[in-house]
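Hello K.,

You asked for the raw outputs rather than the summary table, so here they are, unedited. I folded two proteins back to back in the same session to keep the settings identical. This is the first:
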Amino acid sequence: MKLLRTIAASAMLTLAVSASYAEAWSLDSCINYAVTHNLDVRSAQFDRYKGDLSLTEAKDRFLPTLSASASQSWDFGRGLTAQNTYANRNTSALGWHVSFSLPLFQGLSALRQLRQAQANIHTLDLQVAYAKDEVTLGIMAYYLQVLYNSEILAVRREELRLSETQLRRQETLLEAGKVPEVDVLQAKAEVASGEVNVVNAENDYRLALVDLTRALELGDTDGFDIQTVDFDGDISLPPSADVVYRNALSNNNGILAARSAIGLADHAISVARSGYLPRLSLNAGIGSSYYTLSGSDNISFARQMRDNFSKSIGISLNVPIFDAFSTRNQVRQARAQRLSAELELERREMDLLKTIRQAYCQTEGARTRYQAGVVAVESAKAALDAMTEKYNYGRANATEWEQARSSYITTLSQQVQAKYEMILRSRIIGFYNREN
């Protein structure tokens, strides 16, 4: 029922998506929408639902079983009579039986399976949280990629604007006979190159939007837009990557899920060992029958049912002596599964350490490049303004001005790249350093 409510809420939210396109999406709204609609998350949630069913099944193993049966048969033709002769007789027999069985001791398998199912619920909860974490990190990267491509597009448009301004200036100077025609042709080539760069940047921006909407499980990008992120020019980092790693070992859902899987494998070993223990159950039953013989005086139905009524009660003990090594093989398979879970935990820990150390180093490097880029952009802009003024007065040529323009655009692009790499890597560090 809980899963159905989740699916219904997801469907209602999907219907409201088209209306929400009227406003730009924030990073938080993208993450919240993605963790609700992502197929991997929904698959993990469905596995959690199946875990609830397994837990219910484990609890039901403690309950007794009650069953009823009835049979009706007819015999035709020759048959042996009470006088030890054969005669053509038709007979009819009706019988019913109700049986009851109560497990008294099941080799601890029911109790151990219940504990395993409860541990499985905990593991599945962590798997759902881990799937949401992976979606969150992915959406974060896609979101910032869109913003990065948006700013690069702005840089390319600025580059084109400067080239167009230079072309108009060159055409004016050509008319005045102050520059050769080759300078105008060179300026036109720069404008054409700038137009190509703008087209490529626009295409990269649209592709980044497509990647983001696809990660959000949205149908299209028409009318879809996102908000910028707050950035004051600097970020704070934990003392070291090892500090982040130690915190992540205690709080990261992927690591916690891998550890829980080892405990779940221990329960599986315990369940498998239950096959070595005997089983004891209480059995009881009641029943009766009715019989008719053609050509004879038959006792009435009610009296036969009363006279043939029977009751039974008993205890059955099943002691395993040799089961063709079935239990032994199940224990070995469970132990192998535990080794696999241990290797998975080790792999995740190594991957996490690598990711954190890499993100930490990249954040430090990006911060240094961004801070240097701020100064470089200011210097390159000042140099371009000074070169433009010199060029207007004829104290610089077109090649010198183009070099100054190219330097300004390059430093501006590098600053944008460093900015968004710093934002992304620092948010990754913050994500792993958080407390659950």
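The second followed immediately with the same parameters:
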Amino acid sequence: MTDKSKQAKAIVRIERIHLEEDTAKLIHGDINGKKVSLIDFNRSDLPLIEIASKPDIKSPEQAYEYAKKIRETVRYLGIGDGDMEKGGMRLEANISLQTREQFDNGKLPDYKVEVKNINSFNYMKQAVDYEIIRQEKLLNNGEKISQETRGFNSSKQVTFSQRSKENAADYRYFPDPDIPEIVFNSTQIGKWRKELPPTQTAII
């Protein structure tokens, strides 16, 4: 088995899952020869589930398989259609490269580049492929990589800078004031776990 095959079958842990609300969709285009950005509010207030994984993904191939497994699970459980074309699922990849010293010491890089709003498994793989090459060149030249958010141009198969990226503390998460704190004990959790339908294996 090749290294890439082993990576594709590795376990990817989940850091957190949280609920959000959709706000609006930006549509960029031309009207009467002028470039404009329109706002579509039709999806406003729709609930969203954001799944953030731990930094366990080691290759573009593994990212591809992991994302597909998430969509398969969502469809199997009947909680979403995962339709990329209709905005039912979006992919966002965080890419950073470890130095040999960081790898040997089990340390993560001190930066993170996020490629947002990808609407295809193949595009995500291409974006990660491109970022690995781009970042490797910068690091080999002794340059520091900016922590930023980037987009992906599927026609040119390149990523492009959009804005500087906030640190986790800058997201300003706060509890919903209308939802009281809920604490579950191990007995309740065990009971609910037994009532869940069987799912596919978590190993991809």
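DSSP finds five helices and eight strands in the chain.

Happy to rerun anything if the numbers look odd on your end.

Regards,
P.
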